[in-house]
Amino acid sequence: MATHLTEKENYLRLLNGQVPEYVPTMMSMRCGVRASGLSRPRDMESLEFTDAFFGIPMVMEPNSGPIPKPNEFLLTDIRKWRDVIKRPAIIDEVDWEMTSKKDLEDRDPDMLRVGGGSIGNGYFMMLTYFMGFNEALCAILEEPDEVKALLNFLLDLNLELGKNYLKWYKPDIYSMGDDIAHERAPFVSEEVFMDIFEPMWRQNVALYKEAGLPAEHHNCGAFYPFVKHIVNMGFNAWNPAQPTYNDLPAIKAEFGNKLAICGGFESNGMVSWDQSTEEDIRGYVREVMDTLAPGGGFAFGGLVLGPRDNPSIAERNTWINDEYEKNKYKYY
Predict the structure, then answer these.
(1) pLDDT one-digit tens code per residue, 211-236
(2) What is the mean pLDDT of residues 282-294?
(3) What average pLDDT does the segment 233-240 reach?
(4) Are 235 and 216 in contact (CB under 8 A)?
(5) What phi and psi values does residue 159 have, to the nearest 5 degrees?
(6) In 3-state terms, what secondary structure has residue 61?
(7) Which pTM value belongs to this model?
(8) Rounded to whole angstroms, how far apart are CA atoms 12 and 22?
(9) β 215-219/173-177 pair status
(10) Is the separation of the CB atoms in 50 and 33 below 8 Å?
(11) Measured between alpha carbons, how far is 116 from 204 in angstroms, rounded to an integer?
(12) Is the dihedral of CA 52, 53, 55, 56 positive or negative?
């Protein structure tokens, strides 16, 4: 089928609330813009390292990526965070003009630049990186004012980085992630979310919205209680929008093209089972697209996670991508 829009143009059309020319994929033609000066060289063969900002001990999980090293957290008492969490020296070492020129010199102009300054991995997640989940949740309950003070410290750093990214890297879209939900429910109540985390997210995204960028939000798990709030903040898209504990058709009906649902695919379900056939998996791809693509407001995002050297995983992902390609033109 003849098309007029590039993948980049088509995806931006989706984020701007228009019906795309064909169903985009949320993983297509994307490149993250991140200052190379904000990372430290490390031995890629090693499974352990420290993060460049705060020196958090990290370990590599083969199928999921880096996580804080269990039981070696930096912070055990939220009231003492000022003694432990300092302004990262690496921020003041970056020559933004030189670094951005080097980082962008070979970038394909047809690639979607996905950017935004962030210290680590979101506000809730950074609290867990510093303290672990148990202590972080206790701190939220027992010392909310100290939690807010620490997160405002991170917010100031994120806004400082964001202004530099906007000036020197000129991203096409802003992307923010903060996994505040597990598979079945959020980690915090809506009341706690509105008191502690909503103001951080709102101020963070406002910097990019005021610069005219569309914004994506990443949250795994049962995020449905907070969807209305990210729409109110100005986010244009949500991924990976897992269907198991989120009523995606209802969410789409409520918000329409104000919020693009990106993903809509249950990677941990039938597609990952050994007994599932090629037609089972292809049929599920069609089911997802038939449910969420009509009328726009949807970008496909299907993927089976697992060991990269597992030929079955690679084969399943080939089937998924092929079936998406076969069907992406039939809805608009």
Answers:
(1) 999 999 999 999 999 999 999 999 99
(2) 98
(3) 97
(4) yes
(5) -70, -35
(6) strand
(7) 0.93
(8) 12
(9) parallel
(10) no
(11) 9
(12) negative
Beta bridge partners of 68: 58
Distance CA 300, CA 64 (A): 21
Short-list 24, 8, 103, CA closest to 264: 24
DSSP-assigned letters across all residues of 102-169: HHHTT--TTSEEEE---SSS-HHHHHHHHH-HHHHHHHHHH-HHHHHHHHHHHHHHHHHHHHHHHHHT
Structural domain 7-327, CATH architecture:
Alpha-Beta Barrel (3.20)
Where are the alpha helices (H) located in the chain, listed in sequence order?
Answer: 7-15, 81-84, 96-104, 123-131, 133-142, 144-168, 190-192, 198-210, 227-233, 248-255, 278-292, 311-327
Going from the C-alpha of 193 to that of each of 29, 138, 226, 261, the distances in angstroms are 33, 15, 8, 22
Tokens 């995606």 belong to 248
How far apart are alpha carbons 85 and 105 in whole angstroms? 35
β 260-263/48-50 pair status: unpaired
Joined tokens for residue 177? 């992630």
Alpha carbons within 13 angstroms on the beta-carbon side of residue 178 total: 22
Distance CA 151, CA 166 (A): 22
**Would you say 20 and 332 are in contact if contact means Cβ atoms under 8 Å apart?**
yes
Measured distance CA(328)–CA(9) in Å, rounded: 15
- Cis? peptide before 186, omega within 30° of 0: no
15-29 residues labelled b (16+ CB within 10 A) or e (exposed):
beeeebbbbbbbebb
For residue 154, pLDDT over 70 is answered with yes
Task: Report d(CA 159, CA 166) in Å as an integer.
Answer: 10
Express each pLDDT in 90-110 by its tens digit: 999 999 999 999 999 988 888
Residue spans per domain, the chain: 7-327
Residue type, 92: D
